[in-house]
Amino acid sequence: MSQTILIATGNPGKLREYSEIFGVLGVTFVMPADVGLAGFEPDEPYETFVENARHKALAYAARANMPVVADDSGLCIDALEGRPGVYSARYAGPGASDDDRTQKVLAELADVADDQRGAQFVCVSAAALPDGTVESAEGIVRGLIARAPGRRITGFGYDPIFVPEGYVVPFSEMPAAEKHAISHRGRAAVALLPALKRLLEDYRPD
Ligand code: ITT
């Protein structure tokens, strides 16, 4: 695959992860700042990951006039009836940090027993063309919410409190490639790949 794709996100953690995931797959990519879209923030008006991901991808593709990959993702906690879910980025209000959001989640789960701390990261990865064509795929990874945050060595966001099923350390303490091999984003990106290849084959720049 030799064409250029815009990794369409304002989140530096996601940017790095898509660069790593697609780097392995041999795709050429550019970032929003490379095409004059640093600071572009399409709205996320929907209640589902898939609708928001497709909407975001289409908004970036129309603005950048090139193929894009975007995602909508978040942490869905069983004991919180799926929260923060699609509100993961905004969970502790405007101006809050990743640490503020993880602390808010830990406080909400303070009285929740160890065997009730199940959760899943969900990611819908969407590829879009400027003509309005859009494809998407979902990835999920299940795990447990830790009692206290681990060290922030890799990853971003809620990684220090998410211990994937079958592991004893949180995502934030795993080598990046090991996270991508099982993560919601890694799985969504790999599942999207056949459709992404088709889109790029059909794409004719105007
Ligand atoms: P863009 O819309 O610009 O892509 P965003 O951060 O606002 O950036 P989302 O609305 O999809 O993106 O929010 C996803 C949030 O879910 C993200 O900000 C993190 O808080 C959390 N999240 C998603 N994937 C994660 C991961 O792999 N590790 C840790 N937290 C993650």
Overview features:
single chain, 206 residues, alpha/beta, 6-stranded mixed sheet, 33% helix, globular, binds inosine 5'-triphosphate
Write the layout of secondary structure elements.
Layout: E1 4-7, H1 12-25, E2 28-30, H2 49-64, E3 68-77, H3 98-108, E4 118-128, E5 134-145, E6 162-164, H4 176-182, H5 184-202
Parallel strand pairs: 1-2, 1-3
Antiparallel strand pairs: 3-4, 4-5, 5-6
The chain binds inosine 5'-triphosphate.
Inosine 5'-triphosphate is lined by residues 9-11, 14, 44, 56, 72-75, 88-89, 121, 155-159, 183, 185.
* Counted beta strands: 6
Q: What class do helices, strands and sheet pairing give?
A: alpha/beta
Helix content range: 25-40%
What is the name of the CATH topology? Maf protein
Mean pLDDT score: 95
Low-confidence stretches: none
Shape descriptor reads globular
Bound ligands, named by name, code or SMILES? inosine 5'-triphosphate
Let me know the largest β-sheet: 6 strands, mixed
Q: Strand order of the main beta sheet, please?
A: 2-1-3-4-5-6
The end-to-end span amounts to 20 Å
Radius of gyration: 17 Å
What's the structural domain tally? 1
